[in-house]
Amino acid sequence: MLSLLLGLTQAAWAQEPAEPPMADESDVEPATAVEPLAEPVAEPAAEVPVAASEGSVARAQFTSAIEEREPVDELSRVENDLQTVYFFSELRDMDGQTVVHRWSYDGNVMADVDFAVGGPRWRVHSSKNLLPEWTGTWVVDVINANGTVVTSRSFEYVAAPPAPAAADGAASEAGMADEAADDAAAPAEASPESGGTE
pTM of the predicted model, to two decimals? Predict the structure, then answer.
């Protein structure tokens, strides 16, 4: 930078005006070489980035919902009929940092969710909408401003068991309703088990 600055300075001094002024032959002096500045100009000191505090994660968990900024449950195995999963973390000593929840599936980053931490104890959560075919291991890394993974959690996303066929369930319920109607229409019979008399 300094040599570039000096080079430009020298070049500016060495240039002649576009149209030299008219002068008598006696007024013209021979050209002299331009000398560099006697003292080099010091470059400003480069700013050294201050390392952010590593901080810590007091709590981290997957959940099916967040209520009043708290997780409602803790999940480690999720069936693929639940298609939105939340990740909650309580951060400590990361005030002023931008922290990331990095969601990964099969080693591929699927989402980065950034949070500006505004205090010494800060609760944040992110969520991911999952497609039913994305079964396997999901990982969320909590990454601080230095790029360090402070904590990591994972859950298994598995195929839900097949639901009972709706047509079979509806038919059997309808059949039971028909039998109840037949029983109500039939005359009551006494039986020995009911304590009736013959």
Answer: 0.59
